[in-house]
Amino acid sequence: MQLLNHLIVLDLEATCDTDGRLPTNEMEIIEIGAVMLDARCQIVSEFQQFVKPIKHPVLSDFCRSLTHIGQADVDAAALFPTVAKHLADWQASYTDTDSSIPWASWGAYDRRQIDQDCALHGIDSPLGEEHINIKKAYQRVFGGRRVSLGVALRQRGLRFQGQPHRGIDDARNIAHLIQQNPGLRPSASHKAI
Q: What Pfam families does its record include (predicted)?
């Protein structure tokens, strides 16, 4: 099995509220956290930026409590198109071709949210089409039902490091799970899931 040269492990945080007060189609990214893994599954770089939302610029109490992202963090942040360009430039620095690097996240939410924010702002995705759903891969490798990242880490005897529901910390922990479980490592011939 030939391993990928690089893999982006990404996690997003978005505007949110309790009891459906903020419909999912109005949620916007407020943090992009990502780590770049090399062919040996070592973290070689990190990307973290807050994003200023435009539809609901004031974070709910629930959102601030869940993510530990403050209003000042998003008020001082750039808009999504600028942060997306920074993410694309970061990714491009790890490839010598025009092809994009496959990316992974815990579940399909991150892919849907990236697509939603790109549509809102009328821009192309800063990420490639090849997305790997690590939650699905985990279920395929270890069986059972789909579980949260925290449960998966505990099932594998690992502890969550950092602050849950922070993009960069979630990305680091997903990467750690991949590092410690070779069955989750995508190969160059894998099919995106």
A: RNase_T
